[in-house]
Amino acid sequence: MHASFDTVGSIAILPQNLKRNEAKIIAKKLLEQHKSILTVLHKSGRVKGRLRKPELTFMAGKRTFETIHKESNCMIKVNLKECFFSPRLSNDRLDIARQVKKGEKILVMFSGVAPLPLVIAKNSKPSVIYAVELNKAATKYAKENIKLNKLDNIIIIQGDAKKAIQNFKKKKIKFDRIVMPRPQLKEDFLKEAFSVAKKGAIINFHDFLQEREINQSIANILKKAKQSKRKVKILRWKKAGDIGPYKYRIRIDFVVL
Fold it and tell me: How many structural domains are present in the chain?
């Protein structure tokens, strides 16, 4: 019996479409066939709420939800029960890191356990990265990950993105790049991003769309820019991952003129 699965460190995650009995059988086979896999979990529901906590059920192996994942010269410690983390976004993270120019001041919103800040800091030369995350558990792991990777140019801020941006505005902090690996929220946070974007800033904005809806998302960016009295130029868009039948995580890169 074969099933696709994600691997995070030493943990394999089986997809939601498997029945529990099937998942049990496959879990045992995975442990036998892959020496690097020590734990098998089953995705038993969707990622829920503003804290983006995944619904995962232990299936076989070592009973843990914590692991260290290696990606793009980084070690990323994560508790998969408490924090959202997707290994499928590794190419997207590295692609953004490769865009970064030396000395950029960067804001990463919804930063989780800090995979994006880590990959950027390890693979390019920003001056500083501010990483904002609501989930307290994810923030704890983010701080551990900075120590684990011996980095000193990432500042972790636990709290709501809107409040964090209000503080940046008070302190007159503006950014050369704003990365928005946004969860599936109704709010797009573009107004907030425009308020702390320098002239010439690049915004890497994630949206969840069917391919035919991309023009609507671009139109929304242009509309929000106009409302914020900013002008933008769309640079490119690309698929950053599948999230369902014909639905994708799309990244739209644009410059604030």
Answer: 2
